[in-house]
Specification:
The protein is α+β, with helices and mostly antiparallel strands and about 300 residues long. The chain is built from eight helices and 19 strands. The strands form three sheets. Strands 8, 9, 10, 11, 12, 13, 14, 15, 16, 17 and 18 form an eleven-stranded antiparallel sheet that branches. It has a six-stranded mixed sheet with strand order 2-1-3-6-19-7, sandwiched between helices. The two termini are about 25 Å apart. The mean pLDDT is about 95.
Amino acid sequence: MTQIAVVINPIAGGGLGKTTWDTLQPGLHAVFDEVIYGMSNHVDDLVSITEGLLESEPDFLLVIGGDGTLNQVLNGFIEKDQCVNTNTTLAYFNAGSGGDYARQFPAQNATEFLDRLAHNQAIQTNIGKITFAHQPVRYFINIASCGLSGQVVLDTEKSRWMKKLGGSVNYFVHSIMGLIKYKPSQVRILVDDAHYLDCSLLLMAVCNGQFFGGRMHVAPMAKINDGLLDMVLFHDFTKTDALIKFRKIYTGSHVLEKKVHYVQAKKVAIESLDNRRVEMEADGEYVGCLPAIFELLNQTVPLII
């Protein structure tokens, strides 16, 4: 008997999560012998819902929601750097307003997605790990970042009315506002325990995937299964320069700028040198502040998308 467990964020994408669940549900019942599910009432209950569903050791765990939903479920799916159930395959159908992780794949179609589930057609993806100084480990599947982007995510989470305009617009508006008021911090970045850089930090993204912030092509050379993190560092920018060149991040042409440092690594560590609080986000979810160490788990995870 085959079983699929489904985690649904019904309010993702302004209600697209619930609509997507209604669309996929008949097909899931046709493909699987048993369908169990958990419907989220609040983003903070996604981890516990995931943990509860995994107790039945399903063959598949399907996530319906946005990037933040996927991140929360991932942090219930992985514990102590290992999948809770090694025989459970993770699946994801994007129903978010940003959809940055799904953006690097062909557009999803319900019929084709159900066919991939039926035939267990999974890809392999690396998983990122963030180790903090004073809080629990956090996992991410797409991109984690700090500096301006961390502050922007924190601000967007507080802005209820702007969310109605969609994730991309919300993030863009807060990014421009953030550029105007953000004060860069002095940081030290250590790459692969070998090379370090002291600089004025505007933004640093540590990437497994390519897009974040609602269509921003921050890491155009990143591959989700190459065993490497793509670190993209924006440093020593003046506010005027940053405002003028901000649009380049949407096309990926920012990587040609002299004050953008792009490097692939296994491990990246960053700390503040001026004792100021530097905010962080992972997959569009606010996660805390520096210092932090970013690296990849040793094993890849199968994912149907």
